[in-house]
Design brief:
The complex is a heterodimer. Chain A is mostly beta strands. In chain A, about 0% of the residues lie in helices and about 50% in strands. Chain B has strands at about 5, 10-15, 20-25, 30-35, 45-50, 55-60, 60-65, 70-75, 85-90, 105, 110-115.
């Protein structure tokens, strides 16, 4: 079974631009979560989607948004990029996203560099 | 302050030595996950613990959750260079509540194993 895939793996953007990252979950998984990882803040939860609906959201500004398609693939978008948005963006998928019954499996990440 | 505290922050051991990494919360943990990450890459799922006193092993790695469900430890026996990486503990529900698709992570422990 194929794992979680993320595209692109690397991105370089300049301040003020916007970016879209893509995540394809493991087949059969309907929950997709997104995380931001930085050296200073560690791994932080962005949001979670299930059946095309956002069910949970972390403490990030509105510049960070996402969506999920009917095939469970998900995208996240960051508008008006800032230098501080440089990070490794990870997505994870699970069957239901229901706590303590389901394991999240992570993709390889997208490394975003904002210049 | 972090909801999950990991210790130590970094660890350097000689190949063949045993080691332990700890993950502590001031609140009850309902689902505790251990992941391993190679720098700049995605997270690899190791084990998940739910019940107080639970212990799981895979190859040379053993994870335990204490009876009070506030502390977990990860023990590696006879370490090898392949064990090197960043070890992260994550919890999906701390002290009750519902949190779809969200894992809260510790800051990670960097493990170096010298041949």
């Amino acid at each position: 079974k194929a794992g979680v895939t993320q595209t692109p793996r690397y991105l370089i953007k300049t301040r003020g631009q916007q970016v879209t990252l893509s995540c394809s979950p493991i087949s059969g998984h309907r929950s997709v979560s997104w995380y931001q990882q930085t050296p200073g803040q560690g791994l932080q939860f962005l949001f979670e989607y299930f059946s095309e609906t956002q069910r949970n959201k972390g403490n990030f500004p509105g510049r960070f948004s996402g969506r999920q398609f009917s095939n469970s693939r998900s995208e996240m978008n960051v508008s008006t990029l800032e230098l501080g948005d440089s990070a490794l963006y990870l997505c994870a998928s699970s069957f239901t996203g229901v706590e303590s019954t389901d394991t999240q499996y992570f993709g390889p990440g997208t490394r975003l560099t904002v210049l | 302050s972090q909801e999950l505290e990991q210790s130590p922050q970094s660890l350097i051991v000689q190949e063949g030595k045993n080691l332990t990494i700890n993950c502590t919360s001031s609140k009850t943990l309902y689902g505790l996950y251990w992941y391993k990450q190679k720098y700049g890459e995605g997270l690899i799922f190791l084990m998940m613990l739910q019940k107080g006193g639970e212990e799981k092993s895979h190859e040379k790695i053993t994870a335990k959750l204490d009876e009070k469900k506030q502390q977990s430890s990860l023990h590696i026996t006879a370490s090898q260079p392949s064990h090197a990486g960043i070890y992260l503990c994550g919890a999906d529900k701390i002290a009750g509540g519902t949190s779809y698709g969200k894992l809260t992570f510790g800051q990670g422990t960097i493990l170096t194993v010298h041949p």
